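User: Hi! I have a protein structure encoded as tokens and I'd like to know what sequence might fold into it. I'm fairly new to this, so please keep things simple.
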């Protein structure tokens, strides 16, 4: 994603300046072209030689070279770049950026930059939390800067808290996400993905659930995101890591999933309903743990809301994709679901297929749509299946 891109890395006077070296290295390794601009104080924290060697270009600090009067043009630098990353950004530099102070090359370059600007703050927790810094950051955000939030942890001062510059690897990932989002075929589109199981409590220690691990839904969310879409993943309990760039909302019950999905769907262009939502929940949830007895015990269940069907009722011209996991008369049942839930297409996987279904890393699917089209795919990894499904989905968005 970042190959051939041109970046300016702006380094300010913070102890986190050493991390800029790693960021520059990651960018160069990814095939990006990098120029480094430093504030005069930054040179006290990391040598220009280090950053010049890693970026393969002399670093820039002064407006001109006092030896020969050669001018370092901040205007052409600002025009040259595809992205400007100020990392680390001190409270001082953030304040100057917010007010338009232009007393060093890093700042004049910022004022003349026409490209996206990223700011990775690095400071002590109280400086970061201070109303002045927060106001300055919100001014920068309003002006379109991407603020890469600092992490929490041990600070150079010895204190613990939020203010550590985000790790270079995470900054690099944020850049990758940003540029894939602005370039991919689904750029500017928003999707909701539901994934994983739900849990319906019987009492404080027991629940009803199913074998879904969320793998297929997470793979779909990752695939949509890699094609430039903005993805909200509403997830039941899983052991999986959130795919990079995806906004995840954790829920537990079908009702919580319903609330989160309905809210997110409002802002979306489409939804992929991959969650294995409980169809029934206990009619009553006991306040205390139910005691073991000697006689049979009947658990009374009531239906949950069908989220896909509810969204189908309010979909308008949004795209709605569902899944069907069947054990018999698969196509008939899948088609019935497509109609009942007002889906645009449905992805059928059969538990009868070896390698398809819960927990495994592979899946074998058939896609059925409203026009009666039927597409069968061979057994593939869930990541590859996600690619096939999103290829199919993409055809609905090409005019
Ligand atoms: O009717 P069935 O549960 O088999 O339908 C499966 C499809 O409906 C899946 O896309 C699933 O995510 C969705 N669904 C839902 N809410 C429910 C039940 C199923 O969104 N309560």
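Assistant: Happy to help. Inverse folding works backwards from shape to sequence: for each of the 399 positions I chose a residue that suits the local structure. Here it is:
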């Amino acid at each position: 994603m970042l190959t051939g891109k041109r970046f300016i890395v702006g380094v300010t006077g913070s102890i986190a300046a050493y991390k800029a070296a790693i960021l520059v290295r990651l960018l160069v390794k990814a095939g990006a072209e990098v120029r480094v601009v430093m504030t005069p104080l930054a040179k006290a924290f990391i040598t220009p030689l280090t950053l010049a060697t890693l970026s393969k270009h002399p670093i820039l600090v002064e407006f001109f070279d006092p030896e020969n009067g050669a001018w370092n043009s901040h205007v052409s630098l600002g025009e040259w770049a595809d992205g400007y990353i100020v990392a680390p950004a001190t409270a001082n530099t953030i304040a100057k950026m917010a007010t338009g102070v232009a007393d060093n090359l890093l700042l004049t370059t910022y004022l003349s930059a026409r490209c996206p600007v990223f700011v990775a703050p690095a400071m002590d927790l109280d400086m970061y939390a201070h109303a002045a810094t927060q106001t300055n950051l919100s001014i920068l955000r309003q002006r379109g800067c991407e603020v890469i939030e600092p992490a929490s942890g041990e600070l150079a001062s010895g204190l613990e808290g939020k203010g550590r510059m985000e790790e270079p690897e995470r900054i690099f990932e944020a850049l990758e996400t940003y540029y894939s989002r602005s370039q991919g075929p689904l750029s500017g589109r928003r999707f909701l993905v539901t994934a994983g199981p739900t849990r319906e409590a019987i009492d404080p220690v027991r629940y009803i659930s199913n074998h879904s691990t969320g793998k297929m839904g997470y793979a779909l969310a990752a695939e949509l995101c890699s094609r430039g879409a903005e993805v909200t993943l509403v997830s039941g309990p899983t052991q999986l890591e959130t795919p990079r760039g995806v906004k995840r909302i954790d829920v537990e019950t079908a009702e919580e999933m319903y609330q989160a999905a309905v809210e997110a769907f409002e802002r979306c262009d489409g939804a992929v309903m991959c969650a294995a939502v409980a169809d029934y929940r206990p009619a009553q949830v006991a306040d205390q743990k139910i005691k073991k007895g000697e006689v049979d015990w009947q658990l009374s269940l009531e239906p949950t809301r069908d989220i896909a069907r509810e969204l189908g009722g309010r979909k308008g011209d949004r795209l709605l994709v569902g899944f069907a996991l069947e054990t018999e008369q698969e196509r008939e049942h899948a088609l019935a679901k497509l109609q009942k839930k007002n889906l645009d297409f449905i992805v059928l996987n059969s538990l009868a297929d070896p390698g398809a279904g819960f927990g495994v890393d592979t899946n074998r699917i058939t896609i059925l749509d409203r026009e009666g089209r039927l597409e069968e795919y061979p057994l593939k990894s869930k990541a590859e299946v996600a690619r096939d499904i999103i290829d199919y989905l993409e055809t609905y968005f090409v005019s």
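A useful reference point when you look it over: The CA atoms of residues 21 and 51 lie 6 Å apart. Feel free to ask if any position seems puzzling.
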